[in-house]
Each structure stands twice: as C-alpha cells, then as structure tokens.
Amino acid sequence: MRDMILVGFLQAQNCSNFAGSWRHPDSRSDFASPEYYAHIGKVLEAGKFQLAFFDDRLGMPEFHGGRFAEAIEHGIRSVKMDPIACMMPMAMATTRLGLGATYSVSYYQPYHVARLFMTLDHMTKGRAAWNVVTSMNDIEAQNMGMERSVAHDLRYDRADEFMDVVLGHWGTWADGSVIYNRETRRFGDASKVRRIDHVGEHFRSRGPFTVPRSSQGHPLIIQAGQSGRGRKFAAQWGEAIFTSNPNLEPAIQNYTDLKADAVNLGRNPDHMLICQLCHPVVAPTRAEAEDKFAFVETLPTLEDSLMLLSENNNFDFGSKGIDEPFTAAELDSMSGSQGGKDRVVAAIKDRMPSPRDFITITRRGKLPPPWVGSPKDVADKFEEWFTAKACDGFVVGAACVPGSYEDFVTLVVPELQRRGLFQKDYKGATLRENLGLPRPVVER
Ligand SMILES: Cc1cc2nc3c(=O)[nH]c(=O)nc-3n(C[C@H](O)[C@H](O)[C@H](O)COP(=O)(O)O)c2cc1C
Q: What is the dihedral of CA 153, 159, 161, 162, to 10 degrees?
C-alpha cells in the first residue's frame, strides 16, 4: 500500500508563500527568531509530516527602475533569510522530520552546494533534502554578479551539468571509507575515495571531496520545474517532485507522464515521489472554514499581486493599466517562470491577456486556490487526489504560520490517519527511510 507524503512549505521570511499572511492575527511576528522555526518544526513533527522544506529567492520583489518601497511598506516578501541557517533550530528541535532547503544552481558553485548539503545531512542525522532551482529572476541575477538571469533552457542545461558534479562528488566516498582506528593509526581507506576531475562546458571541479557519506547516502533531491524543459529536468533528477496543477485531470495526466519519463530514463518510478502543492483552509465546520477563507481574502493588496507578478515574469506589471492588454512583444519579453505565463496564454484564447487576467488566473499575490472546509471535506480532497494517482503526497502551503499548520495537524491529520491514508508514526530514522526510498550505495 502507498503511504501518503506530507510536506510543509516553509519560508525563511516574514510571511508564508502567501505574501499577505503576515497581516493575519494567527501569524507569529518573531519570524527572525530561532524559537519561531523550532515551534513550526515541533508542530509538523507532532503531525508526522515526513518533510519540511524552505523555498528561496535571492532578492526582494520590485517594480521597474528598482522601486522597492511597496515591498517594504506592504511586507511583500521583503525579508528573505538564508534557509539553511533558519533550518538549524528546527533540526535541533526535532528528531524525525525531514528538512529541505532550496539552493540555486545558477549562482553557486557545485562544490560549495555539494559540501553544504552533505554537511547538513550529517548535522540532521540523515534528514536533509535539497530543492534544486535554476532561478528565474533578474533581481536575483543583479544581486549575484550578473545583469540578467540565464536564458530559460540554457539554465536547465547548466543545471544538468551542475547535478553531474554534485552527485559525482557525493559518490566519491564509498561506504567504509572512514576507518578511524587509533591503534593502527589509520583514519581512512584511500582505495575507497576518488576524485571526479570534472571538466565540463560550464563547470570545473576536481576533488577529492571533503565530506564523507551520510547515514542516508546523500541528501534527497527535490525539483519543481513546471515548464516542459523544467519537467524533463525533474524527471531526470528529482526524487521528490513538487507540482502545482490546479485541476485533477491534468494532474493525473502529469503524474502518469512524469512516471513514464522516469521509466524511459531508466529510473524506478516508485523512487520518484510526486507531491502536489495545496492550501487547505480548515475549521471544525464548513461554515467556519468559509468564514476563515473570506477573512483571508481581505488580506492581499493589489500591489502584492502586481509586484509578485513583476518578480516572476521579469516585467513591470506596475507600468500597465490593470485592464490594458499586453502586446505580443511584451508577452514575448517576459522571461521568468515559463509555466505561469503559459497557463495564462492558454486560458485566454480570443484576445491578449491583461494584468488582471494574470491575477485572476495565477492568483499571484493571493492565497492560491485553497481547499476550504471541515476536516472531512479537506480529507476528502486529499483522498481523492491521492487515490486517483494525481500525486503521492502533498506540499501543504499556509494562509498563516504557524496557525494553518496547527489547524491542519489538529483537524486533518487525525482524519487522514483514521482513513488509513497517512502514517501514525515515523517508519525510520532517516528521511529516505521515512519516504520508503532505498539508500543509494557506493561500493568500491
Ligand atoms: C512547491 C513549489 C516550490 C517552489 N519553490 C521555489 C523556490 O524556492 N525558488 C524558486 O526559484 N522557484 C521555486 N519554485 C518554482 C520552480 O522550481 C521553478 O523554478 C519555476 O517553476 C520556474 O521554472 P519553469 O520555467 O520550469 O516553470 C517552486 C515551485 C513549486 C511548485
């Protein structure tokens, strides 16, 4: 029997991935304290979540010409701290919860990322995961020494080579490399460690790598590319794949396609776990949940949406009238998230879309289309998607933090457990054990 996977969608910032969440009274304001992250970790572990993961972005949203005042004034994701540093208090407060962080392959060297995450895997006793992103945003590029982000498909080509280097280094210390025998004065077995001597199109990295293998072999690889090229990359490398399909039928198709892609690439499809992003709004009764959601809908401002659309598409949405159609040239010049733009263009067939269309279709700046209802209503949705094989699990987003996770763990988790869909306890010590994934072995 498949076991449902639950992932907490966390941010090292002043809000959840819903920018208006900081305005909610059930959000804690101490987001810059270790206690905040420790508390969230404890809540998710009490709810037997297999994984918590932090997203990342290397910059602040802004309008054209570098106008960032609205981001600060309205708190539109104006804080963005390093996810790994924020994860450490969470790691210290938990023992079983998997812990993932996003790191970009466009702005760091693969050796650095390989070392950071393998170290993290030791410090969490085999609970670490890396969400591999290519980064889509020019603001990030300008913070990290470049003018523009790398062109869409090229950044995935570079990312493929980046993965070769990281996984190459992770595979250089075979099991049994460390001997640590004081009597024979032998620390390690040199025959079990090698260099990778990588010289590629985009990267050079020699080795030997300086971190031995962790208890789970190496950190879990997460990927969430939504475009065609992004999905190809995910099928190649992702052990957990995050999807955000708005509807069930396309999600089933996407699930089937991704698993088939994995088989075609020689992978075991059961070793690729597909987790769908969702935003439950739950209360003891349906009427109360609807009231809760109605309140959440009062939180966003128009600036939230326009600014976050600008950030995602590398185009100044503040420069257009709200109902002014984009020209074909303007649409062409948008260079950020291909997946989001494609969805808008596909939905508006008979005319050119406007900023309002982008807001309505993507709901950017608002809480993404939530599942609202009683514990039974929400559990029904989880069961429907899971049993229809639209996904293997869920990335649970929050209208407010920690309030949404406290509600979910108290109200929905027991209902999923009662139905036999979700684990009542952890299965093992490492993240791979808790996800039912084998430990990658390196023999030499
Ligand atoms: C649940 C989820 C979390 C994501 N987290 C991040 C993130 O932290 N940073 C980021 O740049 N993109 C993030 N993304 C976006 C994708 O990783 C990807 O970068 C984006 O879709 C653009 O790639 P595409 O052009 O292939 O669609 C996330 C997507 C999903 C569904």
A: 160
Asked if residue 213 is part of any domain, the answer here is yes
As a whole number of angstroms, the distance between CA 341 and CA 380 comes to 31
Residue with tokens 């976050």: 308
Judgement on whether residues 388 and 350 belong to the same structural domain of the protein: no
Crossing angle of the two packed helices 338-347 and 228-237, in degrees rounded to 10: 130
Is 440 part of any domain? no
Closest ligand 1 atom to 135 CA = 11
Domain co-membership, 102 together with 69 = yes
pLDDT digits (tens, 9 = 90+) for 300-356: 999 999 999 998 898 999 899 999 999 999 999 998 777 788 889 999 989 999 999
Considering the domain architecture, whether residues 322 and 372 belong to the same structural domain is answered as: no
Q: What's this model's pTM, rounded to 2 decimal places?
A: 0.95
Instruction: Assess whether the C-beta atom of 17 lies below 6 angstroms from ligand 1.
Output: no
Angle (deg, nearest 10), helices 302-313 and 338-347? 110
Q: Look at residue 443 and tell me if it is in a domain.
A: no
Residue 126 CB–ligand 1 contact under 6 Å: no
d(CA 81, CA 31): 10
Q: What is the mean pLDDT of residues 44-69?
A: 94
Place of tokens 């640590």: 180
- Is 38 in the same domain as 187? yes
Residue-wise burial string across 227-260, b where 16 or more C-beta atoms lie within 10 A, e elsewhere:
bebbbbbbbbbbbbbbbbbeeeeebbebbeebbe
Domain contains 415? yes
Shared-domain flag, residues 78 and 216: yes
CA–CA gap between residue 355 and residue 118 (Å, rounded):
43
The response to whether residue 230 sits with its C-beta less than 6 Å from ligand 1 reads: yes
Tell me which of 310, 339, 362 is where a domain ends.
362
Neighbouring CB atoms inside 10 A of 152's CB total 16
Report CA torsion sign: 181, 183, 187, 193: negative
Q: Are 122 and 244 members of one domain?
A: yes
Q: Are strands 273-278 and 393-396 parallel, antiparallel or unpaired?
A: parallel
| The total number of structural domains that make up the chain | 2
Q: Which residue type occupies 11? A: Q
Q: Are 218 and 331 found together in one domain?
A: no
Supply the angle between the helices 228-237 and 248-264 in degrees, to the nearest 10: 50
| Cβ(311) – ligand 1 distance below 6 Å | no
- Supply the range of the domain harboring residue 137: 5-297+368-435
